[in-house]
Amino acid sequence: MVTVWRMRCSDCKTEWELRASFDLSTFKTFYHYCRTCKKNTFHEILGREEIEA
Ligand SMILES: [Zn+2]
Question: What ranges do the domains of the chain cover?
């Protein structure tokens, strides 16, 4: 199982998905590289979905 996390960049508001095997649900915001901003920004976690790897 892989968890897909829906993220939204707090700078440019772009939504994208992060596939991770670790649990991000304890984070309210997540600091990660944004491909639109081309820098590390804070992200809001909008939701999660579990898929078959
Ligand atoms: Zn961004």
Answer: 2-51
How far is the centre of ligand 1, averaged over its atoms, from the C-alpha of 45 (Å)?
13
- Ligand 1 centroid–CA 53 distance in Å is 27
Residue 24 near residue 47, CB atoms below 8 Å: no
- Which CATH number is associated with domain 2-51? 2.20.28
pLDDT in tens, 4-53: 999 999 999 999 999 988 888 888 889 999 999 999 999 999 999 988 87
pTM: 0.81
The CA-based angle 15-2-40, given to 5 degrees, is 40
